Each structure stands twice: as structure tokens, then as C-alpha cells.
Amino acid sequence: MNILYGVPGEGLGHATRSKVVMAHLLAQGHDVRAVSSSRAFHVLDVAFPGRVLEIRGFHLAYKGLAVSKSRTSALILRTAPASLQQNFRQYQQLLHDFRPDVVVSDFESFSYFYAKAHGLPVVSIDNMQIISRTRLDVAVPPPERGNYQLAKNIVRLKVPRSRYYFVATFFTPLVSKARTTLVPPIIRPEILAARPTAGAHILVYQSATTQHDLVALLQQIPEQEFRVYGFNKEESHGNVQLKAFSEAGFIADLASSRAIITNGGFSLISEAVFLHKPICAVPIPAQFEQWLNAAEVEKLGYGRHFGAITADNIRAFVGGLPAFSGALAGYAQDGNAVLFANLDACLVGLAAAAPGE
Fold first, then answer.
1. Which Pfam families match (predicted)?
2. What pLDDT shows up at residue 155?
3. Residue 98: how many CA atoms within 13 Å on its side-chain side?
């Protein structure tokens, strides 16, 4: 089949997992093209030269450590006209050179609109649909209820009435809507190949580098070694090592870590769960999906969920590491086999149902 794959540019988690699925689809003999933006486009373009078109996506704006709804809205309104013109030109090129049979969307809108405009079936593969297509098994506290409703509304509107939904997740609430299948998280080959060991350091991933007191805070726990990614620096500050970005270095430090401290991002949490690494999750404020991931980490006994990184919170997390490791020992996942089997069967069914088949 000819498959158009839509990948958003906000965050690299979408690109990382979409790269895994695209490689599988190509290995199965499908002709795959992708549309993406920003850093995700460059990641995919390197992996699949000549198969990726660059579009302009919408991005989040931050105020301090939190997502700013007003700044994000203003950014979208300011950039939308030029973005739409760029995307229209790219889709004209796509229509000229490539005729998709199906669209796969990882929470990406423009490929979805293309599918609807041309009467094509859409297959959704992402983790966000957990918010709208399941009954959550954690209580949402009052301060998060507004964020929950906003997130649910956005998710419902993102790729509505898709033919199938494959929802990647490390937890398993009850599915509440039809044509929805929960699958284990998509794990990249480098993580599948990693051999986890129990090192002495804690890996810290800081995506919002506006927390400038992080080094001083971690130095308050001198008995613990920390390796910090996110500032893109190579510096030593006693027990705190700042690390410049390196995919190989990051994976090595993750696989050999004692535990991790991160926000609520799905990709890193999923990789840590797969490698049985305890997690201290501090979600970015006003991002409900991150709050949900962090809440599930604590509910499952895989780590702790805190509202802020403090020395006392880290000490409490470190004190619980034996129990967290014990809970994680019960997690098992057969690579990406479940998703691939379900996706292959889905595409076979779509091909059989296509007009003229």
C-alpha cells in the first residue's frame, strides 16, 4: 500500500516512535512517505532521505516552566497564514508525485485533513488518545480538572472519526470507545538492544531548562551522583555532571542508571519502564497528559509523582528505590510485536476493503 505518515514537530518523541513504525512498514513492502515539521522533520529526513516533506506545524509557547495558553494561541495565530501556504504547496507536490491509499497519523493534523479531503481511511497511532478513548483509572484532582477537560477536547478534535486507533501506553485503563486497541509503548531499536545495569548515578532529563537552580538543588544531595541532560553542556559541578546531547551517550547513561528524574513525557517514561528504571516524574504544569503519566507511575509503584523538584522530594524518591525496582520487575513487553501484528492486520483489512480490490 501507499502510506502517508503524519508526524508533528513538537517534541522528538513523535519522530522517534514514528521512525520505528515507518521502518517496519517499509520492511513489509509498503511505500511510505511522511510529512513533518521542525526538528522532527530533520530526524525523519536523515532516516528516510527523499521520503519526507517538510511542512509547518504549530508549537507550544512557555512562560517559565509552564505551557502558556495565551502565548501559544498568539503564536499559532501569528504563524498560521505562512504555515498554511507552505503546507498547501507541499501537498500539491505530494498529490503530483504520490497517491496514498491510507494515512497514518501520530497526532498530526495536516495529513488527517489530506485524508478527509481525498476520502482516505486514517489510522491513528499515538499515546494521546488515552485521554479521550478510555476510562481513566486515577482520580483527577480539582486543580487538574480544567486541564483535563481542555486536553480531552483537544484530543477529541485532533483526528476524529479515524478508522482505527492504536493507543500506545504503559498502563491499561478500560477502553471506552470502539475501534480502539491499547498497545505497549513503541520502543526504538537502540533501547531494545540496550542491556540495563544498576549503576550508581541518577539520570536527570530537563526539557524546560528555565529551572536554573537545578544544579545547586542537586548539589544539596552530595552523596548521590547525577548526570543531567537538557542544558547541552559538558560541565562538572561536584556530584552533578552536565552532559551535552548525544543519543548514544544518553542511551548508555539511561541503561546504566540507578533511576531517572524527568518531566511527564511519555517517551522517556516508557523507555525507563521497559528498562526497569525507577522514575521520579515532575510534569510540566498545565500539560495534563504529563500529569497523567506521572500519576500512573506512582499508582503502579514505579516511582514518585511530584509537583516540583526539591531536595526533600528527591531524597524521598531515593529512599523508595528498592520498592520501585520490585514493582518494575513485573513489567514485561515483547518489543513492538503487539503493535506490528495489529497494524499489519489492520492494513490487510483496509487493502481488502479498498474500491476495486
1. Glyco_trans_1_3 (PF13528)
2. 94
3. 25
**Measured distance CA(357)–CA(327) in Å, rounded:** 49
CATH second-level architecture of 2-187+335-353?
3-Layer(aba) Sandwich (3.40)
pLDDT, mean over the chain: 89
CA trace torsion 311, 191, 11, 46 (10° rounding): 140
Q: Which residues pair with 9 in a beta bridge?
A: none
The H helix count followed by the E strand count for the chain is 14, 18
Site of grid cell 536527570: 204
User: Does the pLDDT value for residue 43 go beyond 90?
Assistant: yes
Rounded to an integer, what is the distance from CA 153 to the centroid of its chain? 19
Confidence band, pLDDT 50/70/90 cuts, at residue 323: very high
- Residue 42 exposure: Cα atoms within 13 Å on the Cβ side: 5
CATH of domain 190-329: 3.40.50.2000
Confidence of residue 76 (pLDDT cuts 50, 70, 90): very low
pLDDT exceeds cutoff 90 at 129: yes
Q: Which long-range CB contacts under 8 A does 268-274 form with residues at least 24 apart?
A: 268/13, 268/205, 269/170, 269/293, 269/297, 270/168, 270/170, 270/185, 270/186, 270/187, 271/185, 271/187, 271/188, 271/191, 273/170, 273/185, 273/302, 273/328, 273/331, 274/185, 274/187, 274/191, 274/331, 274/333
Residue 245, C-beta contacts closer than 8 angstroms, at least 6 positions apart: 229, 232
Residues 6+ apart with CB under 8 A from 254: 191, 194, 203, 260, 271, 272, 275, 277
- pLDDT tier, 80 (very low <50, low <70, confident <90, very high otherwise): very low
DSSP-derived letter for residue 338 is H
Q: Do the domains spanning 2-187+335-353 and 190-329 agree at the CATH topology level? A: yes
CB 325 within 8 A of CB 278: yes
Pairwise CA distance, residues 46 & 42, whole Å: 6
Answer whether 21's CB lies under 8 Å from 104's CB: yes
H or E element in which residue 242 lies: strand 240-243
